[in-house]
Amino acid sequence: RAKQKGRNAWECFTNDINDEVRARMALRNDLQEAIEAENFELHYQPLIDARNDSVVGFEALVRWKHPVKGYLSPGLFIPLAEDTGQIGPISEWVLRQACRDMCLLAAQGFGHYRVSVNLSPLQFRRPNFLVNLQQALLETGLSPEWLELELTEGILMADTAAAVDTLHRLRDMGVEVSIDDFGTGFSSLSYLKQLPIGKIKIDRSFVRDIATSRHDGAIVQGIISMAHHLGLAVVAEGIEETEQRDFLAAHGCDVFQGFLFARPMPLDKLQAYLRKPKAVAQVSSLPIDR
Ligand code: C2E
Ligand code: MG
Ligand code: MG
Ligand code: MG
Predict the structure, then answer these.
(1) φ, ψ for residue 211 (rounded to 5)?
(2) Where does the record place the EAL domain (predicted)?
(3) Most C-beta atoms within 10 A of its C-beta, which of 26, 67, 148, 228?
(4) How confident is the model at residue 7 (pLDDT cuts 50, 70, 90)?
(5) For residue 284, how many C-alpha atoms fall within 13 Å in the half-sphere facing its CB?
(6) Mutate to test the pocket of ligand 1, among 47, 61, 62, 82 (most ligand atoms within 8 A of CB)
């Protein structure tokens, strides 16, 4: 009996694994179709200047427009795409779409905004990464100063010498680089001083309890102060409450990002958002052509 029970348990186990493998294969096939049909959409989340509440740029966040399941968030397919290599074509699409959308906004008279694009480790390590990037900028007509790449600490730690070299080339090109999810990796601030980067983005997990946890408050305060001493700007992500914003403002955080200000939104919603008086206030102070 024990033997039989054991076998049943084993069967259950292998069935579970089979289900999981099947689900992943189905997802992978669906994703392949999505790549071919370009069934993705970029949503843009505004980045807010802490000094005057003006919009300084947007983070581009990819969504999969699934025919049955609706919008799927990147957490549900980016990790798989990184395993299967499908991240390559997805990233190419994201980069070009973000560049095109920024050019469109400028052409429509909304003004120039810098767009932040998340970079996967695989992309950054590809030998032709910089050539592809140049080509995307040329093809879309976006000037490099309006592009920012968000890298995670892991990308930079993996192969430091090559990574530092790539970062210098990006700086020479005029593309801004920021460290995303700062504080969640293994890095120390001391390694930052060797890297030609412009800013760090404090991870949401530290911002969450900033106003209530003495520890998180102290960590964030320390990060901001050290970053500033190294000449880096600081962005805080995941700001949902006024208390969090007030704490960050009081400690000199440069840029705010979070649901308190705006959620990620598709381009048409973003255009409507930019038409609202607050966002265009900075533009209306420019001299008027007669
Ligand atoms: P991330 O780069 O750290 O992006 C910020 C995430 O926090 C976004 O989730 C955004 O919607 C969310 N967020 C922003 N403000 C708030 C807030 O106030 N509260 C809460 N609870 N969440 C907030 P999203 O869009 O689901 O993206 C998740 C992650 O997927 C991103 O984290 C990024 O690592 C990755 N990702 C997104 N788009 C791309 C892409 O085009 N390429 C690659 N390689 N990764 C991407
Ligand atoms: Mg990011
Ligand atoms: Mg982030
Ligand atoms: Mg994050």
Answers:
(1) -85, -15
(2) 24-278
(3) 148
(4) low
(5) 9
(6) 61
Residue nearest to atom 2 of ligand 1 (CA): 118
Tokens of 53: 């509440």
Phi, psi of 183 (to 5 degrees): 105, -15
Q: For the segment 228-277, what is each residue's pLDDT rounded down to a tens digit?
A: 999 999 999 999 999 999 999 999 999 999 999 999 999 999 999 999 87
pLDDT 10s digits, 115-161: 999 999 888 988 899 999 999 999 999 999 999 999 988 887 777 78
Q: What is the pLDDT of residues 76-95, one digit of tens each?
A: 999 999 999 999 999 999 99
Which ligand 1 atom sits nearest the alpha carbon of residue 62? 38
Q: For residue 36, which of 121, 93, 77 has the smallest C-alpha distance?
A: 93
